[in-house]
Design goal:
The protein contains 6 helices and no strands. By secondary structure, the protein is an all-alpha fold.
Length: 132
C-alpha cells in the first residue's frame, strides 16, 4: 500500500509541474486531498494540504470547495471553514455552464455533507459529546 501512496503523490506532483491549472486546479486539489486524508505518521500534513487547496484557486468550480470542506476542514477541525465552504457551494450561481454537471454533483455532495454533519451534531449533543 505504501508504494501506491507514494506513486500517487509523485503523479500528483508531476501533474502540478506540467500544468497546475489543469481541470480547474485539479493537481493542486488532488495534493490537498492527499495530504489532508493521510494520518501524519503516513505523510499527512495539514499545512501542505491548505497550501495546495489555496493554490488551486477557482472557487467557481464548486467541487474544489466541497473537497476542501470534506478533507481539509474536517481534518483541521475547522468548523467555520466547513460551514462557509458548503454554504458557498449551496448558494453559488451557475458560473461555469460548461461544468454544469460537475457543479450540480458538487451541490448534491455539499447537501449530503451538510446533512451528515447536522445529524452528527444532534447525536453528539444527545450523548453529551463535543460538537463538530
Amino acid at each position: 500500500m505504501r508504494g501506491r501512496a507514494a506513486q500517487s503523490r509523485r503523479a500528483g506532483r508531476r501533474a502540478r509541474e506540467l500544468d497546475p491549472g489543469y481541470w480547474f486546479g485539479g493537481p493542486e486539489v488532488f495534493l490537498g486531498v492527499y495530504y489532508a486524508a493521510r494520518p501524519k505518521i503516513f505523510g499527512g500534513d495539514l499545512k501542505k494540504s491548505k497550501e495546495h487547496f489555496d493554490a488551486a484557486g477557482r472557487p467557481d468550480f464548486l467541487l474544489n470547495r466541497v473537497l476542501n470542506a470534506q478533507y481539509y476542514a474536517v481534518a483541521a477541525q475547522d468548523k467555520e471553514l466547513f460551514k462557509s465552504e458548503l454554504n458557498a457551494v449551496l448558494d453559488a450561481p451557475e458560473a461555469l455552464p460548461e461544468q454544469a454537471l460537475a457543479n450540480g454533483v458538487a451541490k448534491k455532495k455539499a447537501k449530503r455533507l451538510w446533512r451528515r454533519s447536522m445529524n452528527y451534531s444532534k447525536t453528539a449533543a444527545a450523548l453529551g459529546l463535543a460538537r463538530f
